[in-house]
Amino acid sequence: MSYPLGFPPEQPLVTVTHPSATTWLLEMHNGDDSRFTEKFINKAMMPALDAVERHWRENWRAARAAKDKEGGKGTLIIVGKRTQNKFFSNGLDYDNLVKDPNFHTNFFPLVFNPLIRRLFTFPIPTVAAINGHCFAAAFGLAICCDYRVMTDGSTRNAWMCMNEVHFGAGWPLSFVGIFRAKVSDNRVLRKIALEGHRFTPAEALDAGLVDHLVKGDTAAVIAKARQVGESVSGMTYAGAWGVIKRDLYRDAVETSERTVLQASVLSEDAAAKARL
């Protein structure tokens, strides 16, 4: 397979490189802040993940056939646009997505939730290289990864935040599943969901939302993410990494498969008005 790979090929929003025999690097570059759209997820993120898994499985099968226990290793790093140090991702392109009258019924069950399941059960270790602000759905995507490495904010500010409560949007059920699966402290969960707290890198580390902080630019964040991913890349040889994750996060995976109409502030108010 020849790298780099761009998705979609005609105007890439995601680029995959293969910097070492055991590492794949997925760079999101839908503009500087890599907002999530249907095209970005279905035409870029999902096929990029497919390409990485396909190549890793080819290596894994060859290593098993040769009884090579040093082969078949792998890790995936996900990073925001590499030529800037401000954004990992700003989350959904919400203002444009909500113009679709079917947004609440279609986008999450048909577009975003499959991406969640893909990451939760990905067969090799995944590391989010958080090189800047990480908001809303991007926060959820990062939490779906197995490890998180974040800039320490010394170069420029960087926050993690689920900010829906600030602009009057409810959470889809899949978001609830993500954070329940990965955040065990109810006080932290309350700050994330109900207060929309902007976690500084130091706060995110203290709360267990990230595993490592890195001083420096995007290149430094990627370097540390690679170190973290490669340190566990050998766990994939037996092929059990993704299988165990599927059961470990079964509740979140099954929650994301449930099609539940997302309540809006206005629909909730209308229901309350009729009831009270």
UniProtKB/TrEMBL annotation:
PROSITE patterns: ENOYL_COA_HYDRATASE (PS00166). It comes from the Eukaryota. InterPro entries: ClpP/crotonase-like_dom_sf, Enoyl-CoA_hyd/isom_CS, Enoyl-CoA_hydra/iso. Belongs to the enoyl-CoA hydratase/isomerase family. This is ClpP/crotonase-like domain-containing protein. The lineage of its organism: Eukaryota, Fungi, Dikarya, Basidiomycota, Agaricomycotina.
